[in-house]
Amino acid sequence: MSYNFRHFNARIGVVFQFQADVERLLSWTRPSHTLSFLAVYSFVCLDPYLLPALPMVLLVLAVLVPSFVARHPAPPKGTLSSEQSMGYSAKGPPLAPATTVRPAKELSKDFFRNMRDLQNSMGDFSHAHDKIVELLVPVTNFSDEALSSTVFLFLCGGAVAMTLASHVVPWRLLFLAGGWALVVSGHPAVKPLLAAQHQQHVQPREERAKTWLDRWIADDVILDSAPETREVEIFELQRMSDDAWRRPARRGDGGGGGGGEWEPWLFSPSPYDPLSQPRIAGERPRGSRFFEDVLPPHGWEWSEKKWALDLWSRDWVEERIITGVEVETEGERWVYDIYDDGEDLRTGVVEEQHQQEKSEAGGKLPKARHHPPPSWEEGEDSSERRGRWRRRRWVRLVKRRAAPATVLS
Prior knowledge:
Layout: H1 2-11, H2 13-26, H3 31-46, H4 53-71, H5 80-83, H6 109-140, H7 145-165, H8 171-184, H9 191-220, E1 229-240, H10 242-246, E2 262-268, H11 277-280, E3 300-302, E4 308-309, H12 313-319, E5 325-327, E6 335-338, H13 343-346, H14 352-360, E7 386-400
Antiparallel strand pairs: 1-2, 1-7, 3-7, 4-7, 5-6, 6-7
Helix pairs in contact: 3-8
C-alpha cells in the first residue's frame, strides 16, 4: 500500500494542476480567459453540433501547439533578432528537447505539494459526502415516510410532465442562460450582491414555504397505519402404524388394517401427497415435530394466538390438483391416501417375498408394476382400506414485523 501510494502521489500533480486552472477560470482571475470560455460555451449551446469538434480543438490548442512551441522556442529577449523585430518564426530544425511529463521525485517539493493537495481533496470529499448524506438521505430513505412519499410523488409527476413536454422546452436557451448565470455569479463584484439579495428576499420566505409544505404533507399524504397481514399454512401429517398397516383389512376399519392406529408424524409445509416430488423420490417428509416448533416466516410475526383447522379440505385439494386421495368432508377433515398395492415398493419398503425373488433372479429385484392411483373422485368404498398417510391443513395469520426507523448501513 505504501508503494502504490508513493507512485500515485508522484503522478497526481497533473490532476491538481487542472483543478487549479479550472478554479482560476471560473473565479475570473483572468477575465479574458473567462470571457473566452463563455464565448465557446455560447457557441456550443446555440449550435450543439459543434460539440464533437470541441475535444479535437482543445487537444490542438492545449496540447499540440504548446508542445510545438516548446521545441521551436522564440528567440530570447535582448538578442539581435528580437531587436530587429523579426518576430517569431517556426522555420528550421527543433531548438529544444521535447517536453515530457515525469513523476515528481520522492521527498521533493512537488512530491510534498501533491501530498498536501491530496489530503485537502480527501478532506473536501469527506465534508461533501457528510453534507450530502445529511441533506439528501433523510429525505429519500423513508425514515420520514410522509416526506419521502411527497418527494416520490413530485418526482413521478415531474417525470411524466417532462416526458410529455420536454420537446417544447427551449433547452439551448436554458443551458445558455444557466451557464452564464453560474459563471457570472462567481465574479468578485457579483457575489456580495447575490448574498445581500438572498438575505433580503429569499430567507424570509424559506420558513413560510417550509410551513406550507409541512401542512400539505400532513393534509394530503395518507400512510397505511396497519401492518400487512398474510395467511400461512401448515400440514399435519400422520402415518399408519406398522402393525395396523400389515394386518389384513376388515370391513368398517378406519385405516389400512385392523384398528387403524395413526401415529402423529410431523407438521410439514407440504401436504406430501402421493404424486409430490419427495414422495415419488422416496424421501421422508420434512417439518417440525410439534406445533410449538413451527415459526413464522422471516420478517413476520404471529397475528393470531392459535392455529385454526381448515374445514374446507376439498378446496385446497382442488387448488393443488392433488390426485390419489380421499377427502373427508365431515369430522376432523383428514385427507387420506387411496390404498395402492405398489406403495411399499415405491417408497423403498421391500418385503421378505421380494427379497427371495431378488436372490432367485441373480441379485436383481424385479421392477414393481406401477399403477397410477385413482383420483379422489374415482374412489369407491375406500373406507375398507386406505393409504398409509393422511394430512389436514391448519392456517394462521401473520403480520409484518416492524423494523427500526433507521438502519445504519
